[in-house]
Amino acid sequence: MAGSRTDSIVIERPRDRVAEIVMNRPDALNAVDARQATLIADACAELAADDRLSVVILSTALDRAFCVGADLKERNQLTNDDLAAQRPASRRAYNSVLGLPMPTIAAVEGFALGGGCELALSCDLIIASDSAAFGLPEVGVGVIPGGGGTQLLSRRVGLNRAADLIFSTRRVSADEAYAIGLADRRAAAGAARTAAGELAAEIAAKSPVALRNAKRALRTGFDLPMAEALEVEDACWHDTAMSADRAEGVAAFVEKRKPEWPRAKG
Question: Which InterPro entries does this one have (predicted)?
Answer without folding.
Answer: ClpP/crotonase-like_dom_sf (IPR029045), Enoyl-CoA_hyd/isom_CS (IPR018376), Enoyl-CoA_hydra/iso (IPR001753), Enoyl-CoA_hydra_C (IPR014748)
